Amino acid sequence: MIKKPLAFICMFCVKVVFAQDPVFTLPGSATAYSNAALIDYNTVSTFKTAYRLQWPKLDGGWNQYYSEYSHYVHPIRGYITAYGMYENNYALSRQSYYLNYTSNIRVSKLVSIRAFFGGGYFFKKVDWSVLSFGDMIDPRRGFIYMSNDVPRGGSVGNVDFNAGLGAKISFVTLAVSASHLTQPDESLVKGKSPLPMHFTAQIGLDYDFLVSRQGKLKVLPFFMFNQQGAISTFQYGSVFEVKGIRVGIASRRNDAIHIMAGYNHKFFGINIGYDYTNSELQGLTGGAFETNFVLKMGKNVRELQKSQFDSPFLY
What is the rounded distance in angstroms from the CA atom of residue 73 to the CA atom of residue 268? Predict the structure, then answer.
C-alpha cells in the first residue's frame, strides 16, 4: 500500500499527469503517435518500440511503453499504421490503441505532401485498493486503519481521432498534427472531463555537412512544439551522424537538457537518451530515461521513386 501520497495527491496526478499527453525526448521514438505523416516511406514495413521512464525518484516514476507497426498497402496507395501505448504510475494506468492511414502525393521532384487520418480507443483506470486516505492515519503509529472511503468510478474508456499533414521540400521537413479531435471524456469520477486537443508542429532538416572518402557527416536539426490546453512545450536540438553512429543534444525550454546517442543501420536503428532537469525541480525527479528500437524491412521501390522523405523524426 502506498504510504506517502494521500488520496488528494493521487487525484491531482490523475488531473495533471494523465490529462496531459506524454512527450517523448528522442525525435523518432513515437513517429506515428506524434504525426503519422512522418512514417518511413522508404521501407515496405517498419516496426518500432520505445520505453520512457520519467521522474524515477518519485516513487516508481511514470512508465511509458510504446510500439508501432506500419506497412505499405499497394491497392490503397498508402500506409496502414497501428500503434499502442501503455502508461502507468502506481494507481494510475492508461492503455491506448490506434489505426492510421497515410498517403503520399508527389507535387514535384523536390516536393512531397503527406496526409493521415486515424482513430482508436483508450482505457484509463485508477486502482483504488492502493490509495491512501486521511482516515487511515493514526497520529502516532501512521497508516494502520482501514478507510471508510467508498470507491467512485475509477475507470473510463472512449473512442478518439487524430489527423495531420507533412511536407518535404528539398531537405526541409514540415509537419502539423492534431489529436483528440472530438475531445472525448476521460473523467475517472463523477462529472465530465474532456481530453484537451493536442496540437504538434515539427520542423526537421537533413543534409550532408561534410563529404569525404571516409564518409559523411549528416546533420539533422529539429524543432518540435506541443500545445495541449494551457500547457505548451518547445523542444529544439540536433542529431549528428557519421557512418551510422549518432549523437545529439536538445533542450526543452525552461525544463530539461536532452543528451542522446545511437546507431542507424539500413535494417535497424537503436537510440538511448537522458533528460537532465534544469528547472526548479532539479535534483528532485531524477530526470528521465528513454530508449527506442527500429526494425526496417524491405525497400519500397515505388515510393523511393516518388520521394526520399528522410527526417530526424524517423529514428
Answer: 21
Predicted local confidence at residue 23, as pLDDT = 85
How far is residue 98 from each of residues 5, 81, 121, 168, measured CA to CA in Å? Answer: 33, 8, 7, 25
- Which helix (H) or strand (E) segment is 244 a member of? none
- DSSP conformation class of 132: -
Check if the beta carbon of residue 261 is closer than 8 Å to that of residue 252: no
pLDDT value of position 312: 63
Residue ranges with strand state E in the chain: 43-54, 62-73, 78-89, 92-106, 111-126, 137-138, 142-143, 155-169, 172-179, 198-205, 207-212, 215-228, 231-242, 245-252, 256-264, 268-277, 288-299
Residue 14: predicted pLDDT: 40
Q: Position of cell 522508404?
A: 42
In this prediction the pTM is 0.83
Distance CA 165, CA 89 (A): 33
Burial label, 287 (beta-carbon count in 10 A; 0-12, 13-18, 19+): buried
Q: Please name which of 274, 269, 273 lies closest in space to residue 285, comparing C-alpha atoms.
A: 274
> Taking the chain (315 residues) in consecutive chunks of 10 residues, what is each chunk's mean pLDDT?
40 47 86 90 89 81 92 89 92 93 84 92 84 71 70 83 92 93 88 91 85 76 92 91 91 88 91 87 80 88 54 62
- Burial (CB < 10 A; 0-12, 13-18, 19+), residue 289, is middle
Phi, psi of 282, deg, nearest 5: -55, 130
Cα-to-chain-centroid distance, residue 229: 17
Sequence-distant (≥ 6) Cβ neighbours of residue 89 within 8 angstroms? 13, 17, 60, 61, 62, 63
CA 250 to chain centroid: 16
